[in-house]
Amino acid sequence: MTDRRHIYTTSKLDRAAHLRILPDTLQGYQHSPDTLVTTVWRHKGLFNSEQDLCPVFLPGSEATEIFEYAEEIIFLGMRDDRPVLAAMLPHSEEPPELSVGTFLDLRDHWSLLNVDDAAIMAYARGLVHWHKQHRFCGNCGNPTRSTEGGHVLQCTGDTCGRLHYPRTDPAVIMRITDGDWCLLARNPGWRPGGHSVLAGFLEIGESLEQTVIREVKEEVGITVKNVKYHSSQPWPFPASLMVGFTAEGSRHDPLVLDKQEIESAQWFHRDELLISPEDETFNLPRKDSISRVLVDDWLKEK
Ligand SMILES: [Zn+2]
Fold this sequence. Notes:
Helix content is 23%, strand content 30%. It is built from 8 helices and 17 strands. Strands 1, 2, 3, 4, 5, 6, 7 and 8 form an 8-stranded mixed beta sheet that branches. Strand 2 and strand 3 form a beta hairpin. The two termini are 18 Å apart. The structure holds zinc ion. Zinc ion binds next to loops. Its cofactor is Mg(2+).
């Protein structure tokens, strides 16, 4: 197992769950100059583009305009003893005209950000997505209302009142190797030249290790062994946790591709990957992904 901190993993944020249940938490923090407010519109975050690109964390006392537009305000936790709130703007075609910043996709700009800022913005984005998807109770269909600082949605139905909690869907992602060879694949929708390790969602009734074996068999037709946990990465794009594994396969077994998901798959020699051109002819996985970490860790083993 690698004790590695992946991008989008929060560390400088104390989630301070005990504060969520205090009814006046949000009210009290909202207009304080100590409070930091991150703003989410659709899946985008608010950035200041006037100087070097940086995320906008507005002091609560300067965020009146944003609070007026916000549909929900969520308490994310404490950063260096300062409350951090996420403001969820309406899901309109265009964002409201704010006096500060511009809305950009975190995943396009993560490399310019401090890792803690990126992690907090990813967290906010994931919670906002959950709010958008759970406006109505899945049990009875009545509207839900936000409670516990935005971390619980409670059904407003008179006879129901069910509590709904944020969802994370686990997915496995696995590096398959055979000695100095590593199996990489390509999905038809990816950027030109983009390659990655295989991945797939957990199904009900499966262990993570079973999912690894099943997904590899389904996608490329081979049977893997020695499935071992590597590390995990939050992936709130929109609602996953990527659980990384390593496993061994044989490069002499025929690859039979699931053409719906896999455009091509191939065993690559370590020496070949070490000189990857990183262009549209061949790209290793994106650098913010656990897929890249799985491959890089293996390349460094030599
Ligand atoms: Zn209900």
